[in-house]
Amino acid sequence: MGAIFQVRLDDKTTAEVRALQERRGLTASEVLRRGVQLAIKEDFPEASARIAGLGEFDFGPTDVARDMRRMMKGFGQSSLPGGKRRKVKRER
Question: Based on the structure, what is the number of domains in the chain?
Answer without folding.
Answer: 1
